[in-house]
Amino acid sequence: MGYGHESKRVNLVTFMLVFTVLLVSVEQFLAAEACESVSATIIDLVPCASAVSSNTTTEVAPSKKCCDALNSQGIECICSVYEQVKSSIPSSLSVSKMKKLPKTCNMTVPAGYTCDGEAVLS
Predict the structure, then answer these.
(1) Phi, psi (degrees; rounded to nearest 5) at 88
(2) What gap in Å lies between CA 117 and CA 5, rounded to an integer?
(3) Contact, 62 vs 51, CB < 8 A?
């Protein structure tokens, strides 16, 4: 008699495990799909160029257009693009200034979020 309930319990546990794995996979897929493409994201971030220029010794605040573009992309997308292009960033752009943009633009960043092994400040 007890075998029927045990079988249903095992099926329910199995279903919950499979459902959890699928849910995590979908969340990772959606985060990876957050960017249109590397080139489209970079084009969207052109308004940020003056704020991250290494050709100036004075700090230039990012424009509203820059911050809007940055925030519309989201930190996962920005980080993904950065990790893909970091080796080809021209010397005319300051990586240290780039890393300050999320905080300067009041970007929503999950606590403890890291990008390329470094904490992202928000």
Answers:
(1) -115, 15
(2) 48
(3) yes
